[in-house]
Amino acid sequence: MDLWVLNLLNGISFGMVLFLLAAGLSLTLGVMGILNLAHGSLFMIGAFVGFFVFSGGGSFWVAALLAGAIAGLVGLVLEKAFLGRLHNLFDAQAMLLVGVVYILGNLGLWIFGPQNRLASPPLSLAFSVRIGNYTFPAYRLALILIGTIVFISLWWLLAKTRIGAIIRAGMDDREMTTGLGVNYGLISTAVFSLGAFTAGFAGAIALPMIGVAPSIAWDILLYSFIVVVVGGMGSMLGSLIGSLFIGLVDTFSRALFPDIATFTLYTVLVITLLVKPSGILGRKGILQDMERL
Amino acid sequence: MSRGPGRRAVIGYLVSSAPYITGALAFVLSPLLLPTYLQSMLTKVLIFSIFAMSLNLLWGYTGLIVFGHAAFFGVAAYTNGILITRYGIESFWLAAPIAILITVLVAAAFGFIALQASGTYFSFITLALGLLVYSAASKWRSMTGGHDGLIGIPLPDLGLPWFTTWNATYFYFFVFLAFAVCFFLLYRLASSPFGYALQGIREDEPRMRSLGYNTWLHKYIAFVIAGLFAGIAGVLYSHLMRAVFLNFVGMLTSFLAVFITVIGGSGVIFGPVVGSIIIIFLEYFSSLYAPERWPLILGIVFVIVMLFLREGVSPYLVRVWKKVIPIWKP
Predict the structure, then answer these.
(1) A96 interface with B at CB cutoff 8 Å
(2) How does strand A134-137 pair with strand B150-151?
(3) ipTM score of the complex?
(4) Where are the beta strands (DSSP E) in chain B?
(5) Beta carbons of A281 and A238 less than 8 angstroms apart
(6) Cβ A254 vs Cβ A261: under 8 Å
(7) What is the DSSP string of A164-199?
(8) What is the pTM of this model?
């Protein structure tokens, strides 16, 4: 019984990290119409920055914010210097990002070596919380708290602000939104950088749980993609539900059937595609957009 | 009197097919002048040409971007290797067809799943399915040998009594023959009504649908055919390497095919061959001087190509050819 409760907590906290990743991926996809294949690489950059700031004696939270900022900066450069030059060439943008994944992955291998690096949770969170009969590590609870805060702020940004209204309008009909005089290029750049920021931030705060290695980029991308497919594109609530679902499924299958755990995710992906291709809460506009691509 | 236009037509035909004849002659004659290790490089070029041509059917002709094509290459290589080393089925005429058949079945299943979606979404699903095959190959150790790979695959046993000893040159010509057949078949396919329908889907799928084409079925059939040719390449590659390793199904192999197709020029029948020559020799030089940095070099080359040379190299070659020899209009 204890195992179940602990795995439940682990699954939810892993799901929250996935939410940080998937939210950025899903927003970028909705706004720019491209799947950011370099999302896992931005996670890796954030995790490396976080690891060296934190293990160099910096505060965990400063490390996480710095990781997010640097990943966001890389995202900004990527969007401005490379993707911007391939305006509306979605295939070429996707292909270019594949090249970027190989460049960043191999640079990471060159500079930091192949080993996986884990960090211990920060001292301020290195204790356990007793709830009823169970003790929970505070770090895991903090991840859940951070995920919830990010979810609420992103939801508020999208649902309650003027910028959010513009983003939603652009997801539904990009041409019309541009026609109304919105500088959609600026919005795209901002959203891409925001997505990169959340990916880098997630990389740093997940260090005690996932760690970082140069080979991590594809795995992270795969997880985030599956969450976006299951949750549905362009919806924050969908991403949250998808993340928690995948987090729990992955954690429990690793605990219950470790031999075949790798295949659980693929099974979920395939079943979703066959049964409900738009995901749990997908925006219809985006699916039509994807048809067009 | 009627001889004039007839002769001009023949000359025109010769001139228009001259690049193919020159290319074929270069491929036939060059191994005779090259040392053995370069011969096997050239064999690899041909195998990856088949592999990339199969991708090009989807990429260049149908407009379907596939990121996990190594799945079919790898399934065929593994099946062939397993049949030969674990089950002792040594005859090429038995092992290779079974391997290709199984690949076609896998392609039929994967195509059905992936074609539930379109666009970038489709691309990424093929990538996920490619990763699935990779995971399966690394876990199923009793069959695939896991990270150690499957070693001890001999050159193909053709069962010909008068032909018993292989050498690198013979194997090169064997692969060249397979390549020529695949090239011809894919060329015919691309210029058949089916091929034109695929190009119509690439240009405007809704319009093709309203013209009454079952576009989904066209894409699905193209996907399975591409799987078949990728399987042929996989079988040949397992014989060339005398082994099957995990990286045959790896992501880099998938993207190598993509890079070859794009750099060579997608949508042109010989584009993948040009791309294959460039990429395989680039890989070779990189392995001499900086083997660890190959993904970095490949990534940089690819980003540059995407920014400045999106059409690939082939259109430039065509332009140069047309400048050198004025076009004959029969």
Answers:
(1) yes
(2) unpaired
(3) 0.84
(4) 150-151, 243-244
(5) yes
(6) yes
(7) HHHHHHHHH-HHHHHHTT--HHHHHHHHHHHHHHHH
(8) 0.87
Distance from CA of A181 to the nearest CA of B (A): 28
**Beta A128-131 vs A134-137: how paired, if at all?**
antiparallel
Can you give the CATH number for the domain in which A25 is found?
1.10.3470
* Helices (H) then strands (E): counts for chain B: 14, 2
Q: Are A220 and A17 in contact (CB under 8 A)?
A: no
Please state the φ and ψ torsions of residue A207, each to the nearest 5 degrees: -50, -45
- DSSP secondary structure string for all residues of B78-112: HHHHHHHHTT---BHHHHHHHHHHHHHHHHHHHHH
pLDDT at B74: 95
- Residue to test with chain B: of A32, A98, A112, most B Cβ within 10 A: A98
Question: Per-residue confidence at A15, pLDDT binned at 50, 70, 90?
Answer: very high
Structure-model confidence comparison of residues A230 and A259, the more confident one: A230
pLDDT of A287 reads 45
When pLDDT is averaged across residues A182-210 and rounded to a whole number, the result is 90
Nearest to B128 by CA among A247, A91, A265, A203: A265
Beta pairing class for B150-151 and B243-244? antiparallel
Determine contact: A102 vs chain B, CB below 8 A.
Answer: yes
Most confident of B59-68, B225-234, B244-253: B225-234
Q: CB pairs below 8 Å between A and B: how many? A: 111
Confidence of residue B196 (pLDDT cuts 50, 70, 90): very high
DSSP state of A33: S
Instruction: Let me know how long chain B is.
Output: 330
Residue pair B74/B234 in contact (Cβ under 8 Å)? The answer is: yes
Answer whether residue A27 shows pLDDT above 80. Answer: yes
Judged by a CB distance cut-off of 8 A, whether residue A292 touches chain B is yes
How many structural domains compose chain A? Answer: 1
Cβ contact (<8 Å) for A89 and B303? no
Is the minimum CB–CB distance between B125 and chain A shorter than 8 Å?
yes
- Residue A58 to chain B, least CA–CA distance (Å): 31
With cut-offs at 50, 70 and 90, classify the pLDDT of residue A236: confident
User: Looking at residue A4, what is its pLDDT?
Assistant: 83
- B167 dihedral zone (left: phi>0; alpha: psi -120 to 50; beta): beta
B157 DSSP 8-state letter: B
pLDDT in tens, A264-291: 888 888 888 777 777 777 655 444 444 4
Query: Would you state the structure tokens that stand for residue B173, as one six-digit string?
Result: 């010509």
* A263 vs B198: CA distance, rounded Å: 33
Ranges of each domain in chain B: 3-324
pLDDT score recorded for residue A285: 43
Residue identified by tokens 């699954």 is A11
Task: Give yes or no for residue A72 having a pLDDT over 70.
Answer: yes
**What class, spelled out in words, does domain B3-324 have in CATH?**
mainly alpha
With a cut of 60, say whether residue B147 has pLDDT above it: yes
Give pLDDT tens digits for B177-188: 999 999 999 989
Which among B135, B292, B303 has the least Cβ separation from residue A262?
B135
Structure-block tokens of residue A38: 């370099």
